[in-house]
Each structure stands twice: as C-alpha cells, then as structure tokens.
Amino acid sequence: MKILQVNKFYFPWIGGIENVVKDLADGLNGKDGIEMEVLACQSKGKGAKENINGIKVYRASSLGTLLRMPISFEFFVMYRKLAKEADLIILHHPFPLSFLAYALFAKKKMIVWYHSDIVKQKLAGFIIEPLIKYAFKKADSIFVSNKNMILKSKLLNPLASKCKIIPYGINIPDYELPPKIEEESGKIKNKYGAPIVLSVGRLVYYKGFEYLIDSMKKVNARLLIIGNGPFKEKLDKQIKDGQLENKVSIIDPVKDLIPYYHACDLFVLPSVANSEAFGIVQIEAMACGKPVINTNLPTGVPEVSLDGETGFTVEPKNSKALATAINKIISDSDLKLRFSQSAKKRAEEFFSLEKFLETNKRYFEEILNK
Q1: How far apart are CA 117 and CA 330, in angstroms?
Q2: Of the candidates 324, 259, 312, which has an alpha carbon nearest to the alpha carbon of residue 285?
Q3: Pick from 35, 7, 253, 210: which is nearest to 115 by CA?
C-alpha cells in the first residue's frame, strides 16, 4: 500500500497540520505493508528530496508565499510523477495547489483530510471553491477531526455521508511526570509563583490572547503565554499599558512544553475565530491532568474539553467570562481536582495517538479494498 500525503509544508516546519501529517507518516510507514511518502513545498528556495525517519519527503521549490500559500510550479511536476506511483493520495486541506494538481493530473483513489475552513482569505477561498468541490465529489472519503465541523461548514454539510470523524491524538505516555520533568516543573513554579494559568499558541489574530490578558485584571494569578508571532508587539504594549507586567509573561517557544503543563494550575485556549478548528494543545494539557477553559466556537474546540466536565467553555471575545471561569477553578480545590481527573481520563480514552493511527489505517484499507 503506497500512500502519498500532500500538504503545503512538512517537518521541521512547525504547525498543527504539519504535525498531523508527520504523525501519520511516522506512525504508519512500514506498518502492515504501508509505504508513506510526503509531497510538500519549500517556504522559499530550491526543491529537495530527503529521507526523514525512513520516509521519502519531496519538497518542491518555491518563489515564496502569497496569502500564506507557497508559489510553486515544480509542485505540479512532482505531483504528477508521484501520484502515478501511489495507490492512495491524501490531500490535506487547506492547500489549494493540491486540489488544482488533482484536477489536472492522476485520478487515483483519494482522501481529503479536512483540517479547517478557509477563514481569513475569503476571496482566495471563493476563487478556489470549485476546485475544492470537485475534489470533494471525487474523494473516496473526507476525514474530519470533529462533528461540529461537518455541521457548521457549508462545504462539508452537504457531504456529511462521505465524512469520517477521526479525532486527533497524542502519545499519552509522553505526558507522564517522571522525576526529571517534575524537577523542571518545580523550578517553573518557584520562578513564577502560584497559581499559574497557561496558554500556548502562535501570537496571531484568531488566538484571542488580548482577551485573556485583559481578563487578568480581575484574576489573582500568573499568566504564562508561550508563543511568538506578528501580534507580539501589540500584546506587549497591552501588558505594559495595563500595568500587568507582574501578572502576565509572554515566553518565546520552548523545546519542551510538558514541564509547563505540569507546572500550571489550569490551561486556557481563548481562541476567537474558526481558524482554531480543534486545539491539540487542549489534549496535551488534559493528558497532564489539567482543567481547560476554552471558547464556544462552531468547531471542534468545545468538543475536546467539555463544559462542566473537564473545565469550562465560555463565549469568544469575553474577558469577563474568562476571568470568572479562571477564578472558579483556582478558588475551588474540589472542583479543580474533579476537572483534573476527568480531563486526564478523557484524553486517555478518546485522544490517544494509537487510536488516531489505527482508525486512519482501517479506513485506508477499506478504501483500497473497495
């Protein structure tokens, strides 16, 4: 079974979709006769062929990016060649070039892994919509991470019968608390004090960090935001103008988040737009036994951590609601313990990497055996 995954970028590029592509490649390559290959683009520069962890990775040359998409002509040449040799093609959406390539060239058995709607680039989304609809029509199946996406997406809803729900997963044992992690976690607690509120993500518009920072005016705790991005200067100014330097710290991305998850008292995902389709960081925090506060987006976000069971779900862009939810958890040790235990149990039962890989593999086999 030769499977070609197609996405705009690949490891070591950092991103949620790129992590999923890598998990599938690493987890299934060589298993029961599966041979995984990956076709992606360079963000800019010459093309390359690499072997990463036993997986053939083809990177098409690129002139750069436009609207966060690579500009690559070589991609079509590579796609045509590799698609001919594949038994199954997986197109990871959103990536317009892959849908155009599919329409032009090899019509093999194909799956669309639908990760997110096109939210901000609405004009571009309108232009490429016919290509997406064509691919959806031809796809043997459409994989999505959550039920909400099928219900709320105007593209997916008419094709609900073709959709398979496969929640993302993480390698749960990685999030245990061995002595070394416990020691590092203790150092973080000593440095910042308690209670600690943690949030993680790129500093971009849809993450809603400005509302979380604003909520800290009414919370007696320390907020750590781990991430970098174009909104950093704006958020730094907000912290300074609000005289919140002793309450809020923005930390550059770290190599290992696990000590921070264990050091915090609760985790917050304050996202405000549909670009946040799932929020894998929620699972990571839950696997460490942490309550989660998320927002009621029409995506998979509130399906990961459940309101009143593993934390609280509040309305997006509501600093007051965030503050109220944070204060409830940090002031009630029994509630915090109940949420913590339920969060860890839910992560283990529903969001393991093993379950994610096995479900993908089962559907691959079903499609190829039709």
Answers
A1: 35
A2: 259
A3: 7
What pLDDT does 119 receive? 59
Look at residue 44 in the predicted model and tell me its pLDDT: 94
- Beta-sheet pairing, 196-200 with 222-226: parallel
User: Do 53 and 21 contact (CB within 8 A), yes or no?
Assistant: no
- For 31, phi then psi, to 5°, come to -95, 120
C-alpha–C-alpha distance, residues 20 and 95, integer Å: 14
User: Which are the contacts of 283, defined by CB distance < 8 A and separation ≥ 6?
Assistant: 168, 169, 170, 304, 347, 351
Residues 318, 295, 191: CA angle, nearest 5 degrees: 85
The angle formed by the CA atoms of residues 152, 158 and 162, to the nearest 5 degrees, is: 100
What distance separates the 2 farthest-apart alpha carbons in the chain? 63
The distance from CA 64 to its chain's CA centroid, rounded to whole angstroms, is 23
Q: Are 112 and 136 in contact (CB under 8 A)?
A: yes
Name the phi and psi angles at 197, rounded to 5.
-105, 130
pLDDT digits (tens, 9 = 90+) for 316-351: 999 999 999 999 999 999 999 999 999 999 999 999
Helix axes 96-104, 122-138, angle to 10 degrees: 40
The residue ranges of every structural domain in the chain are 2-169+353-368, 172-350
CATH no., domain 2-169+353-368: 3.40.50.2000
* Beta-carbon contacts of residue 41 (< 8 Å; ≥ 6 apart): 8, 9, 59, 60, 61, 62, 70, 72, 75, 97
Give CA–CA dist 328/314, Å, rounded. 13
> 268 in helix, strand or coil?
strand
- How is residue 217 written in tokens? 């005016």
Fold of the domain spanning 172-350: Rossmann fold (3.40.50)
Mutual angle of helices 96-104 and 74-85, in 10-degree steps: 60
Kindly give the parts of the chain with pLDDT less than 50.
none
Cut 0.70: pTM above it: yes
Fold match flag (2-169+353-368 vs 172-350): yes
